[in-house]
Specification:
By secondary structure, the protein is of the alpha/beta class. The chain has one domain: 3-Layer(aba) Sandwich (Rossmann fold), CATH 3.40.50. It has 13 helices and nine strands. The longest helix is centred in the last third of the chain and has 13 residues.
Length: 293
C-alpha cells in the first residue's frame, strides 16, 4: 500500500473546525480537505463495467422487504437505487463524501432513499446510534481507504448492525488491474508520484481484521474473485479519467499531475490485449459476514 494514502488521523485534522451540514434530517460531515474532487456526471457515465456484475453481487446480498440498509460509498447511486427497489418497505441510506456524486444519486433516488455526506472513516460522527441497520453494504469503495483505516470501518459497520445483521463488501483485492497498475505506476514513478495508491488487500490478513471486529463468517464467505471486464479503448479511457486518475494526482502538484495524465494517455495503447481488445483483469475482494445474533 502506498504511503501517500491519507490516514483517518490526518483526515480528522484536515476537517477540524468545519461546520457540519445537515442532509435529509441526518447528520453529515463535509468532504475532508485532502479528498480529491470527483466529477459526478463523468463518473455516472462510466460505471458500465460495474453494472455487468450487479446480479452477482445481489445474489449474495441478504435482503428482506423491510430491511434498513446502509450503503457505504454510494457514489452516483445507480446501484443504490436498484437495492432500494428490493426493500420496498424499508429504507436505503447512502453515504458518500463527494457532493457531485450525491447530486447524481439524488436524481435517480426512490422515495425510500436518503443520503448523507461524509467519508467511511467518519461513520462514528455520521451515525452515532448503534444497531440502526439490518444490512451494511459497500461496493467498489474500500480500495480507496487506507488499510490502516479498515479496522475502524469494520468496527463501525459491526456497531451499526443489529444483532444478526449482515455486512456485505466488495472492492479491489490483491492482483487487481495488474496490467493497468504496471503502466500507471511506471508513469507516476518517473514523476516522483505514488505507487499502487489503492488498498488491494489479500484474504489472509483481511480475515484477521474481519474476525477482530467481531464478525462471524458462518453462512458467509471471504474470497478473491477474478473477473475479465470488457472495455474498448474509449470506455477504458473513460474509466481512467473518471475513477482512476484521482488516486495518483491527489498527491502530486498540478504540473506533475497534468504530466501524469498526458504520460498515461500517450501510452494507452500498451493496455491492448493480444486479441485486440482493451479488456482488463479485475480481482475483487468479496466478503459476506454477520454480526452474531
Amino acid at each position: 500500500m502506498s504511503e501517500k494514502l491519507i490516514s483517518s488521523t490526518e483526515m480528522n485534522r484536515a476537517g477540524a473546525g468545519e461546520a457540519p451540514v445537515v442532509d435529509a434530517g441526518a447528520a453529515a460531515v463535509p468532504a475532508p480537505a485532502w479528498l480529491p474532487a470527483w466529477d459526478g456526471a463523468r463518473y455516472a457515465a462510466n460505471t458500465g463495467h460495474h453494472r455487468v456484475y450487479d446480479q452477482l453481487y445481489l445474489d449474495t446480498l441478504p435482503l428482506r422487504a423491510a430491511d434498513v440498509v446502509l450503503d457505504l460509498g454510494c457514489g452516483s447511486g445507480d446501484f443504490t437505487a436498484i437495492v432500494a427497489a428490493l426493500v420496498p418497505d424499508g429504507e436505503v441510506v447512502g453515504v458518500d463524501p463527494q457532493p457531485t456524486l450525491l447530486d447524481e444519486a439524488r436524481r435517480r433516488a426512490a422515495p425510500n432513499q436518503r443520503f448523507v455526506q461524509g467519508a467511511v472513516q467518519q461513520l462514528g460522527a455520521l451515525f452515532p446510534v448503534a444497531g440502526s441497520f439490518d444490512v451494511v453494504m459497500t461496493r467498489a469503495v474500500l480500495q480507496w481507504v487506507p488499510l490502516a483505516d479498515h479496522p475502524g470501518v469494520l468496527a463501525d459497520a459491526f456497531r451499526l448492525l443489529r444483532p444478526g445483521g449482515w455486512y456485505r463488501a466488495e472492492f479491489g483485492g490483491a492482483g487487481n488491474i495488474p496490467v493497468i497498475l504496471r503502466l500507471l505506476d511506471d508513469v507516476a514513478a518517473r514523476l516522483g508520484g505514488p505507487q499502487c495508491p489503492w488498498t488491494f488487500a489479500d484474504v489472509g490478513p483481511y480475515l484477521e481484521l474481519v474476525e477482530q471486529a467481531g464478525f462471524d463468517l458462518d453462512g458467509g464467505f471471504l474470497r478473491l474473485t477474478p473477473q475479465r471486464r470488457h472495455f474498448d479503448r474509449e470506455t477504458l479511457m473513460g474509466w481512467f479519467h473518471s475513477q482512476a486518475v484521482q488516486a495518483y494526482t491527489t498527491t502530486m502538484d498540478a504540473g506533475d499531475g497534468a504530466a501524469f495524465v498526458r504520460g498515461a494517455e500517450s501510452r494507452f495503447d500498451e493496455l491492448a490485449r493480444w486479441d485486440g481488445t482493451f479488456d482488463q483483469t479485475f480481482v475483487r475482494m468479496d466478503l459476506l459476514a454477520r454480526r452474531p445474533a
